[in-house]
Every structure is written in structure tokens, then in C-alpha cells.
Write a structure and sequence with these properties.
- The chain has 250 residues and is mainly alpha-helical.
- The protein has a domain of 67 residues.
- Helices cover 58% and strands 10% of the residues.
- It is built from seven helices and five strands; from the N terminus they run ααααββαβαβαβ.
- A three-stranded antiparallel beta sheet has the order 1-2-3. Strands 4-5 form a two-stranded parallel ribbon.
- The longest helix has 63 residues.
């Protein structure tokens, strides 16, 4: 048996290295070594079976392969959905960018329109006005140069420094300038002529009436405690309706 063992040694070493032989006690030299090897083989076989049972959870190789194929199909379907979602997201981002650019363009045009209209209303009383809007800082700057004053010396950037009538007229001019950009079908103003003198009140009221006539599709409601007898000449055409309230009982 020794000669046979020595003859099979090279082939055996292909499957079991010398390091592995050292781990299990070296090359067998006694007849009962076969029993030792068989026990080692049984031990290794049981270890392999136990590990396969743990990994495969009692399934056969065919069942495990089927499970792998099922999971691969699910992963492929999920990746396909993910690609579709990514494509939709890219389109949405492009749409958002276009809308942001359009919004900036519209904001710029609105700013220009309001600034032009405001200055136009101010010029009708001999004044000059400038409006500048900063959308990033969400601020609005208003500069007013009243009639008879130079641009440098008379420029006012804080309307609180204006007189009551000047501030009321500037506010009215700014409100009318904004009115063109407002899509609401109803417009209401309360005490628009407060602190105005008779001349500014007449001019301001005419501005409001002219604006209303240019927009017959809108309805305007103006409230004032002041005398409105100047509107009597407009009542005959049916365009203006004046509702006077009784004096409050004291």
C-alpha cells in the first residue's frame, strides 16, 4: 500500500496542498490513516452541506438559479423605470429653466412699463418720477422731482419728505401705473385724494376716470370723504354712478 500511496502522491497533491496536509497532521504513514482521511472527508462534506443549506435556504441549484433570474428581471425593470424618471426629471428641469427665463423677461417688461407709466402720470402735473425694482433683494426704489425743482437738488428718494398732497398724488400715479399690469376685474381705492389740494384732487380724479374709460371691462370703486360735485358732469352718460352716504349722526 505504501508503494501505491507514493505513486498516487503527485495526483493527490493537485487537490490537497502540502500546507493542507500539515493542517490535518501530515502525510499518512500508518494503515489506519485511511480512516483518519475518511473522517476528515466526512467533516469537510458536512461543513460544505451546512454552508450550502445556509446560503441556499433549502433550495436546489435549479431553484436558486430561477430566483436569480427573477431578481435580475426585476432589477432590469426597475432600471428601465429609473431611466424614464430621469428623462422626465430632465425635461422638467429644462421647463423650469425656460419658465424662469420667461419670468425674468416678463418682470423686466413690467418694470419698464410701470416706470414709464408712473413718469407719464407725474409729468402731467409737471413732475418727474422714476421707479426701479430689484427682484433679487425684493426692494423698490422711487425717485420724485416735483415741479419747479432741479433734478439734482429736488430729487426725493423717500416719499415721507414730500408734503401730504405731493405724496398722495405720487401714490395715485404709482397705483395707476401698476393698474395696467393687474388682471383683477375689480379695483377699489379708499380715500385716494386724502391730503390733496383742490387742483391735485381734480387732476387725480380725472386720471382715474380716464383710466376707467380705457378699461370698460373692469369695475372701479372709489371711496372718498371729499366733495365729488366735480363728477356731476359725468353722470349723464351713465358711466359714473355716485352713491352719497348720509352724514353720520353725532
Amino acid at each position: 500500500w505504501r508503494a501505491q500511496l507514493e505513486g498516487d502522491l503527485p495526483k493527490a497533491l493537485e487537490f490537497c496542498t502540502e500546507e493542507r496536509l500539515a493542517d490535518i497532521g501530515g502525510m499518512p504513514t500508518e494503515p489506519h490513516a485511511n480512516e483518519v482521511l475518511n473522517k476528515e472527508i466526512d467533516r469537510i462534506t458536512r461543513a460544505i452541506s451546512k454552508e450550502e443549506a445556509r446560503v441556499m435556504d433549502g433550495m436546489s441549484i435549479q431553484e436558486l438559479e430561477y430566483q436569480v433570474q427573477q431578481q435580475e428581471r426585476k432589477v432590469a425593470a426597475a432600471l428601465k423605470k429609473l431611466d424614464a424618471v430621469k428623462l422626465t426629471l430632465e425635461r422638467l428641469e429644462l421647463g423650469i429653466d425656460k419658465r424662469k427665463k420667461a419670468l425674468l423677461t416678463i418682470a423686466k417688461l413690467v418694470n419698464q412699463s410701470v416706470a414709464h407709466e408712473f413718469n407719464d402720470y407725474m409729468k402731467q402735473r409737471g413732475h418727474n418720477g422714476r421707479v426701479k425694482t430689484n427682484h433679487k433683494t425684493e426692494t423698490l426704489e422711487m425717485e420724485v422731482v416735483m415741479a419747479g425743482q432741479t433734478k439734482d437738488a429736488g430729487k426725493v428718494s423717500n416719499t415721507k419728505t414730500l408734503s401730504g398732497g405731493e405724496r398722495s398724488y405720487s401714490t395715485l400715479a404709482f397705483t395707476l401705473a401698476l393698474g395696467k399690469e393687474n388682471e383683477s376685474p375689480f379695483r377699489a381705492m379708499d380715500e385716494f385724494d386724502v391730503f390733496m389740494d383742490a387742483v391735485n384732487r381734480r387732476v387725480g380724479t380725472e386720471h382715474l376716470l380716464n383710466f376707467a374709460r380705457k378699461h370698460p371691462e373692469l369695475q372701479f370703486i372709489y371711496l372718498t370723504p371729499q366733495d365729488v360735485s366735480m363728477l356731476d358732469k359725468h353722470r349723464d352718460d351713465g358711466f359714473v354712478h355716485v352713491q352719497r352716504m348720509h352724514n353720520a349722526a353725532r
